[in-house]
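Figure 2 data, in text form.
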Amino acid sequence: MVLLPTPTIPPLENGDHLSQAEFERRYQAMPPGTHAQLIEGVVYMASPLRIKSHGEPHGDIIGWLWNYKVATPGVVLGIEPTVRLDPDNEPQPDAVLFIPGRQATISEDDFIVGAPELIVEIAASSAAIDVHDKKSAYARNRVQEYLVWRTLEQTLDWFRWVDGEYQAQRPDGDGIFRSQVFPGLWLDPVALVQGDLAQVLSVLAQGIHTPAHQEFVQNLTVPAGSSLDQG
């Protein structure tokens, strides 16, 4: 009997066109620390991240969202989680905020399945994948709100899913973005871009203390065993 060699699993490569199943098979065989995403059926490998154009802004956004989570029992905040969005898209967004059991669930193997209500991405510029292919994939899957911070251009884009497409939202007369999905999630974009985090948290606190947020929390039911929800 001739023993044939066991086929090796090919490594992930930038630009590979793969199914979701094959993407996950190769991803699991990659060395620890590998970061990759499947966007519109194409593999994107993570590049080294700079501190001022990505790392620090990412931390600032997470601080804003974490404070909202503390005041809003029942919402889940994730940092760079794998999201099984559809057969051609398995991104790792910089941040997600969602209510398990509504648009997205948590699978038995601990992945997000479906479209989180809010996704946040940190992008260097308008040329980034976050502003093009990811945006299209998120809109098609009805991610309700999509926030992109283009750090090199010092610009925040807040999109809301309306009638099958994203519409750019504008700050109100006070210069504040107000989430339509998560009542009380308020953001001062100028303060965030300028690094005035005290002002960012002050505006968020105003949103959290509104009757709309209090009613949202009262009506927000936490699904039993949400960490074990099946996709």
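Caption note: Confidence is low (pLDDT under 50) at residues 224-231.
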